[in-house]
Design goal:
Blueprint: H1 6-18, E1 23-27, E2 36-43, E3 52-53, E4 61-67, E5 70-75, E6 81-87, E7 95-98, E8 103-108, E9 113-120, E10 130-131, H2 143-157
Length: 158
């Protein structure tokens, strides 16, 4: 049996807080060839997830919030925000599913945020994600400014 408990989430939160990327994942699938990938993502507000999409092969991706608060953002092909949803267990906004071929990213809004992710497999790093050319890559200059600009835009839309 696979269990998700306070011991696991506390451990991941601690690891994410000290990791250089300010996030840590925990896979439940044992092999990359698994047809359904399941994992936890612990994220801190300082982390940056470059907008990306899953296509060829097309993959669905669903996120369910366990702790904290996380923004899920979808973009059009030009990088304009098309839609967003704030995952927050306090307000009853528990999950979101991203359709294949949809540009998206996540932004942690609170320290200690954790989402459970389910994504179509198998995982192959050569074709799992296609990153948006209109957004800075992880590790490049400008990621913090870009993340903050997204947060300003979604605040205006609320």
């Amino acid at each position: 049996m696979i269990v998700i408990d306070k011991n696991l989430t506390d451990k991941l939160t601690r690891e994410a807080a000290v990791h250089p990327r300010k996030r840590k994942n925990h896979n439940f699938h044992r092999e990359f060839s698994d047809p359904m990938n399941r994992m936890l993502h612990a994220m801190e507000p300082e982390t940056y997830v470059q907008p990306h999409k899953h296509e060829n092969p097309d993959k669905r991706e669903a996120f369910i919030i366990l702790k904290g608060k996380v923004a899920v953002i979808e973009f059009d092909d030009a990088g304009n925000i098309r839609e967003h949803f704030i995952l927050d267990p306090v307000t009853g906004n528990y999950g979101a599913e991203i359709r294949p071929r949809t540009w998206h990213c996540l932004i942690a809004l609170e320290k200690g945020s954790i989402v459970y992710e389910v994504k179509d497999g198998p995982y192959d790093p050569s074709d799992d994600k296609f990153f948006a050319s209109w957004a800075p890559a992880e590790g490049e200059a400008g990621t913090e400014n870009y993340r903050n600009s997204i947060l300003k835009q979604i605040k205006k839309q609320q």
